[in-house]
């Protein structure tokens, strides 16, 4: 089923001159970003210690 720009069923057929672009493959980009990634185990350890100390139920984590 085809949809128009507003998401309604029955949009213009592809023979009308428009074809939706193919989805981008971010696989190579994500693989590059994961290369050398060590994880955040240290952060989870600190959060668990913070929770164990009986702090309020709100925590703000900031990052660059």
Run of helices and strands: HH
Number of helices: 2
* Nearest-integer average pLDDT: 81
Rg of Cα set: 23 Å
Question: Spans of 5+ residues with little confidence (pLDDT < 50)?
Answer: none
Sum up the overall morphology in one term.
elongated
Record field, number of beta strands: 0
Termini separation:
43 Å
Structure notes:
The protein has two helices and no strands. With 64 residues, it is mostly helical. The protein has a domain of 39 residues. The protein is elongated. 0% of the residues are buried.
Short description:
The chain is an all-alpha fold and 64 residues long. It contains two helices and no strands.
Task: Draw up the topology in text.
Layout: H1 27-34, H2 41-52
Q: Which properties best describe this structure?
A:
single chain; 64 residues; mainly alpha; 31% helix; elongated
């Amino acid at each position: 089923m085809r949809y128009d720009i507003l998401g309604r069923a029955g949009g213009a057929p592809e023979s009308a001159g428009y074809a939706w672009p193919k989805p981008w493959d971010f696989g190579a980009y994500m693989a590059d970003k994961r290369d050398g990634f060590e994880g955040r185990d240290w952060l989870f350890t600190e959060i668990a210690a913070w929770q164990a100390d009986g702090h309020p139920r709100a925590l703000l984590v900031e990052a660059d």
